[in-house]
Amino acid sequence: MMVPADAQTGQPRSALPTTWQAFLQTQSDALRQAGLWRTIESLQSPPGPTVRIQNQELILLCSNNYLGLATDPRLIAAASAAAQKFGVGSGASRLLSGSIELHERLEQRLAAIKGCADCVLFSSGYLANVGTLAALLQPGDTVLSDRLNHASIIDGCRLSGAQIAVFPHRDVEAAAALLKRSTGRVLIVTDSVFSMDGDVAPLSKLLDLSQEHGALLMVDEAHATGVLGHGLVAQPALAGQVPVVMGTCSKALGSLGGFVAGSKLLCDYLRQRARTFFFDTALPPPVLAATLAALDVLTAEPERGQRACQLAKRLYLGLRELGFSALEPSAAIVPVVFGESTRALAAAAALRSAGILALAVRPPTVPEGTARLRLCTMATHTDAHITRVLDSFAKLPSDLRRPHPP
Ligand SMILES: *Cc1c(COP(=O)(O)O)cnc(C)c1O
Q1: Which atom of ligand 1 approaches the CA of 250 most closely?
Q2: Which of 63, 133, 190, 248 for a ligand 1 pocket mutation test, highest count of atoms within 8 Å of Cβ?
Q3: 363 by DSSP, 3-state: which?
Q4: Does the structure show a pLDDT above 80 at 397?
Q5: CA-to-CA distance for 402 and 323, rounded, in angstroms?
């Protein structure tokens, strides 16, 4: 194919100015040298419990499709039917002509499972966090944020212009101390299940703290919704008490989209003020229908989440027995910490040859010196899959089996 060339230089039009070329090259080289270069690989199969990549069959151990719903025939049928009926694109933002009845129905269903009065859909969880935090917080306000919160929370905090006070992971006392020194209105934000450590936030204590000080608590349920029932905020002790509940339809629900549930006042405000809602094209009909079908499956088969969690527990115990520094799972995430990025990469490569896909998670996704394999179990994994995974870990070279230096 002919690439359109610049008339004067004869270079392809996509050529970069020299200073930018040098900048991008230097940065890319540095990433490669630090073992932080990411590669993107295409699956040749659906994201089931096993996948095919480069004609190799692999046990998939790094997907957030915890319940296996992304390939569930019921979701596929619902998405197909919605595509036939409504088309594949929504064509505009919700506030223009992009909204259909399925958006409202899904918002009501999500509000109900979170024990809230209302809910706002976004195109992704990332956009839900960024748009909500930026809409709620203003310069002069303070946001207290757990050190291990997801990047979309961090970005939303930064975008808001509020004072950001980061507290050590799960440390409520440190959060309380920061709260005493904070100015303006205060929002406390935390993951419920942490994406990279797989543990849970001290939600009851954070709720008490927020209520004592009139602070607003926002909880991100991306890895809890559908895995731990309807999520941690839906459990009896917390039901109806967390004022800002964020979640995603892109993980256990097997589809795509983010949401924020809360009071009608909160949600109506976000529809007016969250720029990632206002200026973003509405989710397309097949995606909405698939998520609605996922909620039906969740109700009909609550054991799916339990199965994913049980497999995670078994994997964790097996890995501990083999001497790996696996972190205890609270949901379906089992991190195995290797320390240096190169060690995590070597482990990932060895497992890959053994037919297991578990990618290395490296800084800046996790703190320096804590590179890891973030293993995720799926309800659709068989017991034999987990046995094979443990057997493969057992065969890793001995220098990788040494626990990582603290
Ligand atoms: C994945 C994730 C998000 C973003 O959700 P997407 O729907 O993938 O954009 C937000 N918060 C946490 C904790 C996540 O793990």
Answers
A1: 7
A2: 248
A3: coil
A4: yes
A5: 7
Ligand 1 pocket list (CB less than 6 A): 124-126, 129, 150, 152, 191, 195, 220, 222-223, 248, 250, 258
Tell me the residue length of the chain: 406
The packing angle between helices 383-394 and 303-321, to 10°, is 20
Are the CB atoms for 12 and 3 separated by under 8 Å? yes
Beta strands in 317-406 (DSSP E): 333-339, 356-357, 360-361, 371-376
Distance separating alpha carbons of residues 63 and 58, to the nearest angstrom: 12
Testing ligand 1's pocket by substitution, the residue of 62, 123, 126 carrying the most ligand atoms inside 8 A of its CB is 126
Mean pLDDT of 83-95: 97
Whole-number mean pLDDT of the chain? 95
3-state class of 248 per DSSP?
strand
Output the pLDDT for position 403: 63
Ligand 1 centroid – CA 124 distance (Å): 8
Can you tell me which residue has the tokens 């195995």?
A: 336
64 Cα nearest atom in ligand 1: 1
Query: pLDDT by residue (tens digit) across 202-239?
Result: 999 999 999 999 999 999 999 999 999 999 999 999 99
Question: What's the confidence (pLDDT) of residue 9?
Answer: 67
Q: Report residue 223 as tokens.
A: 């890895």
222 CA to centre of ligand 1 in angstroms: 6
Angle between helices 203-213 and 172-180 (to 10 degrees): 10
Active site residues: 195, 223, 251
Of ligand 1's atoms, which has the minimum distance to the CA of residue 223?
15
